[in-house]
Specification:
- The structure holds two protein chains of two kinds.
- In chain A, 78% of the residues lie in helices and 0% in strands.
- Chain A is an all-alpha fold.
- Among the domains of chain A are: 46 residues; 55 residues.
- Chain B has a domain of 95 residues: RNA polymerase sigma factor, region 2, helix turn helix motif (Rna Polymerase Sigma Factor, Chain: A), CATH 1.10.1740.10.
- Chain B is built from ten helices and no strands.
- In chain B, helix 3 crosses helix 4.
- The N terminus of chain B is likely disordered.
- The chains are: A mainly alpha, B mainly alpha.
- At the A-B interface, helix 1, helix 2 and helix 3 of A face helix 2, helix 3, helix 6, helix 7 and helix 8 of B.
């Protein structure tokens, strides 16, 4: 005669929903099968009965779900808007941050562009003065000697 | 959202590119009781079960475009519900499953009455009702001592009566692993029944 059913055989039979063949010829296993099946059946029945709720409960559940859907969608939209705004702010701060290397060359270029312009003006002024002057710069020493001789001669004639 | 839905979608045989928004309310209507019951059986906390049921459908709504009909809608929702339940248990680990012991040991009789009412059969004698209550209580206690996955498998199979293949999909396990968990869970329940009632008493039942 076969020994009593083991756990695996009971589990297999429970899954299949049919008692093990051995149960038909063994009073002990039949009792245990009935007890196990009955207990699990009671467990299922209890679980189902515990979860029974009035219709108003299910309606409220659906209303709760419905009310949370737009809020979630809006929250997602706000999240994206916030992230986009944050990126824009960071970009703006980086763009206008003082002491940035990108701004330095601009100021340098402006200075270097202004300075030659000033030098050019001075040079032009010098050229104008030289052109309008009676004595060319190269002849200035000679002109100085000549003027000193003239003044000495005129001084001598006054003394006589 | 409309209240109409093709039966194929409710039954879970849809092959469309995701679930249409207009189908969503009908899906909630068709599955909310089963999802709530599953979460209540696993958590034994009505408030948490109600809250997580809503979360489950909200997550399903957000991910409706990813549903490809490879599994049924019911299996897909079960997968979401079990994941939410696991997250919930992780965040409130200390309180998990204590309620089952409290309900089993309560002396005020309220829970016993609830269980008694739950298993009461209009045609059952008072002795049969008491026996059914004791049996259910014993299984609850045994289930509470199972590991997380064993408990999930046991509840999905014996409370929700899901096929093994669907349990495997819902829990991301192989069919062999599901069977193994079930075998161990049944062994644990059987052992607990024997410990509670004794070999002889069990045999007399």
């Amino acid at each position: 005669m076969k020994s009593h059913c083991n756990d695996a055989e009971f589990a297999e039979a429970l899954l299949a929903g049919t008692p093990p063949a051995h149960v038909a010829e063994c009073e002990v296993c039949r009792s245990e099968w009935e007890a196990l099946g009955g207990a699990i059946g009671s467990f299922r029945q209890t679980a189902h009965q515990d979860a029974e709720r009035p219709a108003s409960f299910w309606t409220a559940q659906r209303a709760g779900i419905r009310s949370r859907i737009p809020r979630r969608a809006m929250a997602a939209g706000l999240r994206w808007a916030f992230v986009s705004g944050l990126f824009l702010c960071i970009f703006a701060v980086m763009l206008f941050l003082p002491g940035r290397t990108s701004k330095a060359p601009v100021s340098t270029n402006t200075a270097s562009a202004t300075k030659p312009a000033l030098d050019d003006d001075a040079l032009l002024r010098q050229v104008d003065e030289a052109v309008t002057d009676d004595t060319p710069p190269a002849m200035e020493p000679t002109a100085l000697i000549a003027s000193e001789m003239n003044s000495a001669l005129s001084k001598g004639s006054q003394d006589q | 959202m409309s209240a109409t839905l093709q039966p194929a979608v409710v039954a879970g045989t849809v092959n469309a590119q995701g679930l249409a928004e207009e189908d969503f309310e009908s899906i909630v209507l068709a599955h909310q009781q089963r999802i709530y019951r599953l979460l209540l059986t696993l958590l034994r906390d009505p408030d948490a079960a109600a809250s997580l049921t809503q979360d489950c459908f909200l997550r399903a709504y957000e991910k409706r475009h990813t549903f490809r009909g490879e599994a049924s809608v019911g299996t897909w929702l079960t997968h979401i519900a079990v994941n939410l339940m696991r997250d919930h248990v992780r965040s409130r680990r200390q309180g998990f499953w204590k309620k089952i012991f409290q309900s089993g040991n309560s002396s005020d009789g309220a829970n016993e009455e609830a269980v008694s009412e739950a298993v009461a059969d209009a045609h059952a004698t008072p002795e049969q009702q008491v026996l059914a209550r004791e049996q259910a209580d014993t299984v609850w206690r045994a289930v509470s001592r199972l590991s997380g996955q064993q408990r999930e498998v046991f509840v999905l199979r014996f409370s929700e009566e899901m096929p093994i293949e669907e349990i495997a999909v819902a829990l991301d396990l192989s069919v062999g692993t599901v069977k193994s968990h079930l075998s161990r869970a049944v062994a644990a329940v059987r052992k607990h029944l024997k410990e509670t009632y004794g070999e002889i008493a069990l045999q007399r039942r």
